[in-house]
Design brief:
Rossmann fold; about 15% strand; about 40% helix; 5-stranded parallel beta sheet; about 300 residues; alpha/beta; globular
Length: about 300
């Protein structure tokens, strides 16, 4: 954060909490941390001007602040902001030359959700020679803070450099660091995550392609149709990243959102608390329904095998 502070024009970091207008905490309670009731009433509340910047995959939205994967069902625009991740995972990604992009689209990552499994299986089967770059591999999460130039990070960045569109499907969480890495690289993100809330203030239709999860099979044809526009979209994606998330402006972007949320927090706390409870109940209900449906399908499958 030191480099961000040195170039911020309005906001700055301070060493003591007593001198701060706002305090940002890391990692709020997650859905899989405790019992359901604890999230509604038992988890501690942050202070009056404390907010969270949560990059967890299973957030509850209990605390106000910035979230990377908060579902639409639990999202309250008065209390929450969908936002970029708080750290740079791959320092090898920077602005790439458009002339280096030889593949129409690409994906590099692990199979961390049913959607990814179905999507990658389909894309591999439908891939035309020279059209797509698909690599299934886990990320170097255990070496996230190793800045020595790991081969895995270099390989990932090289794959992104060679693609015009980069596929960003949901995985363990609804959000994906790929979205912001792709924008930073000057490539076009392809978003597949129905319940993900896109960050505000960006013209996403001009700089990304969003495809419903149920229509993943249309991805190749949609990107072929968008190919003539990819340079303009890629430039828009890069400019959007520079305007909102680059080191030069990130701290100021955070400050603007904090001020807006603070006003809503002070004038509408009771309404927001009820809204949170309703959202969490909807979210929990949906997940219980999905879990129950999966168990029924498994039971039916066992019956067929008999």
């Amino acid at each position: 954060m030191e480099s961000i502070e040195s170039r911020a024009t309005r906001a700055s970091l301070v060493d003591r909490a007593a001198d701060a207008d706002f305090t940002i905490l890391t990692r709020a309670p997650q859905l899989d941390d405790a019992g359901f009731g604890a999230h509604l009433w038992g988890s501690p509340s942050p202070g009056k001007r404390e907010y969270v910047w949560d990059d967890g995959d299973q957030p509850t939205g209990r605390w106000p602040g910035f979230y990377c994967s908060l579902p639409r069902e639990a999202f309250d625009s008065k209390r929450h902001r969908s936002f970029c991740y708080p750290i740079i995972y791959n320092e090898r990604i920077h602005r790439f030359d458009p002339e280096d992009a030889r593949f129409l689209y690409g994906f590099v990552g692990g199979i961390t959700s049913g959607l990814r499994s179905r999507l990658i299986k389909y894309l591999v089967a439908q891939n035309k020679p020279g059209e797509a770059l698909i690599k299934v591999q886990g990320g170097p999460w255990e070496s996230m803070f190793d800045r020595s130039g790991l081969d895995a990070k270099l390989g990932y960045a090289e794959s992104m450099r060679r693609c015009r569109f980069f596929v960003c499907p949901r995985g363990n969480g609804l959000g994906s660091i790929r979205l912001f890495e792709t924008m930073r690289a000057g490539r076009v993100p392809v978003i597949l995550s129905d319940s993900f809330v896109l960050p505000e203030g960006i013209n996403w239709s001009a700089c990304s392609v969003r495809i419903r999860e149920s229509e993943f099979h249309r991805l190749p044809s949609i990107l072929r149709q968008q190919e003539p526009n990819w340079r303009l979209m890629a430039e828009c994606a890069r400019q959007s990243w520079e305007t909102h998330y680059s080191d030069d402006v990130l701290l100021d972007t955070i400050a603007v959102h904090l001020k807006a949320m603070d006003i809503c927090k002070r004038v509408g706390q009771l309404e927001s608390r009820w809204g949170y409870c309703r959202g969490l109940l909807r979210l929990k209900g949906r997940r219980l329904l999905i879990t129950t449906r999966s168990k029924v399908i498994s039971k039916l499958t066992l019956v067929r095998r008999k």
